[in-house]
UniProtKB/TrEMBL annotation:
The keyword Signal applies. Keywords: Signal. This is Phosphate ABC transporter substrate-binding protein. Residues 1-21 form the signal peptide. It comes from the Bacteria.
Length: 140
């Protein structure tokens, strides 16, 4: 029994290690020159502002709930669990005070969306950020 428990714990640690080892980067269109702080990022993804620091319109995009990178982003960027954010947005939607960011189904879709629209801000693993997007912030 102890060996099975130890094996399960080791497997869990191995499966979660790459997820946390990959740096999450905030990406914007290359023409977007806005500086992005973690505070501004939080305000954008919590619906408290709709513009970048340079005054341009901002459209935050989330990865789909089933994407492991979303959980990492929620915790690192917003300091909240996915469940807490779901409750937060449920309350705002119910009261008519906001709606959650739209979603991209995959990391590749996120990169394509950001690359085609200067207003979109998203997040991806650093290894997925190519020359079609600009890294605006690294979440370590």
């Amino acid at each position: 029994m102890k060996k099975m428990l130890l094996g399960a714990c080791m497997l869990g640690a191995c499966l979660s290690w790459p997820l946390h080892a990959e740096t999450v980067v905030i990406v914007v269109h290359p023409s977007n020159t806005a500086d992005i702080s973690t505070d501004e990022l939080s305000r954008l993804y919590l619906g408290r502002t709709r513009t970048f620091s340079n005054g341009e319109s901002a459209v935050p995009i989330n990865l789909a709930e089933n994407q492991p990178m979303r959980t990492v982003f929620d915790e690192k960027a917003l300091s909240r669990s996915s469940a807490q954010l779901k409750a937060y947005w449920s309350k705002l939607v119910f009261t008519g005070k906001g709606s959650p960011p739209q979603e991209a189904d995959t990391v590749d879709e996120m990169v394509k969306l950001v690359a085609t629209n200067p207003s979109i801000i998203g997040y991806v693993p650093e290894s997925a950020a190519d020359d079609r997007v600009r890294i605006a912030l690294r979440l370590e």
